[in-house]
Amino acid sequence: MLLERIYDEDLSQASYVVACQSSGEAVVVDPRRDVRPYLDLADRHGLRIVAVTETHVHADYLSGTRELAAATGAQVYLSGEGGQDWQYGFEGTRLHDGDTVRLGKVVLTAVHTPGHTPEHLSFLVTDGAFSEDPGYLLSGDFVFSGDLGRPDLLDEALGGVDTRFEGARQIFRSLQEKFLTLPDHVQVFPAHGAGSACGKALGALPSTTVGYERLYAWWAPYLAADDEEGFVAELLDGQPDAHAYFGRMKRQNLLGPAVMGERAELDELTPEALRAGLDGDRLTLVDVRPVEEHRAGAVPGSLSVPVPDKAATYGGWAYDPETDTRPVVLLAR
Fold first, then answer.
1. Does a structural domain hold residue 296?
2. Mind listing the pLDDT tens digit for each residue in 67-89?
3. Is residue 220 part of a domain?
4. Looking at the structure, do residues 179 and 285 belong to the same domain, yes or no?
5. How far apart are CA 115 and CA 119, in angstroms?
6. Labelling 122: which of 37, 55, 135, 179 has CA 20 to 30 A away?
7. Handedness of CA 87, 93, 99, 102 (dihedral sign)
8. Is the dihedral of CA 209, 210, 211, 212 positive or negative?
9. Which domain, by its residues, includes 133?
10. Which run of H or of E encompasses 195?
11. Number of domains in the chain
């Protein structure tokens, strides 16, 4: 079995390629919008991407599920849990608690773990070449290294009213019934690391185990004492502000981001064309130089989004394509 983590430092986001090397079949879990890394990895290992899935409707980045399926012909699998309000608006085989995706000798089993979102799935991974029992858990935004997914985003990003309390109680039950019932040796691979706003104290380690979290996670004493009230209060206290674009990402990912396909090289504008576009208010200029250089001298009205550090996150704050439909021009060296 192959299990590879592809990590986006900007978004502190992890996606996973799981494959049966004997059959050459692979599934990608939680792909990001830029699907080239998955295609390159599959080519390197001689794999066919036959399935694409995601743990939940993401708020912090645009999903690449539809894009990758279109590029490879892979079957899309989506959560069918969470009730009518959380059903995806695009085609895909619906997965419910206990459903499986098989790739040769490798089996992914869907586990409904609501709380961060109502439809959230985790995936138990069994390498049938070695064991009949699962050895790995792709936990999405349910369990992180040292932390848990925040349950308040429906309030913060989508205008919900006090859904955070039910979400926190759902996470408590998901831990009790789905996570802590697993053997200690099960290795846990989360969808985010340190720097993500999907929790308040995410660790930087790429993985953890059920046993380690059972012993040392901040929430472990609350579960051991069956103290749901204390758990809810602690989980909700001190969550960071949700990024301004989270609501937009939720809406677009639920409906399904548009498939872009192969993209042409960017055009380079002449200074004259840029000046005419700006004077006519027909362009949005994004200045990707370091902040100090932008402050020292910049085009009036330009947006400062320095690269490479957190450019996608900053860009999501600064530019909203739902309200600004003008073409974007990057000022870069």
1. yes
2. 999 999 999 999 999 999 899 99
3. yes
4. no
5. 8
6. 37
7. negative
8. positive
9. 2-255
10. none
11. 2
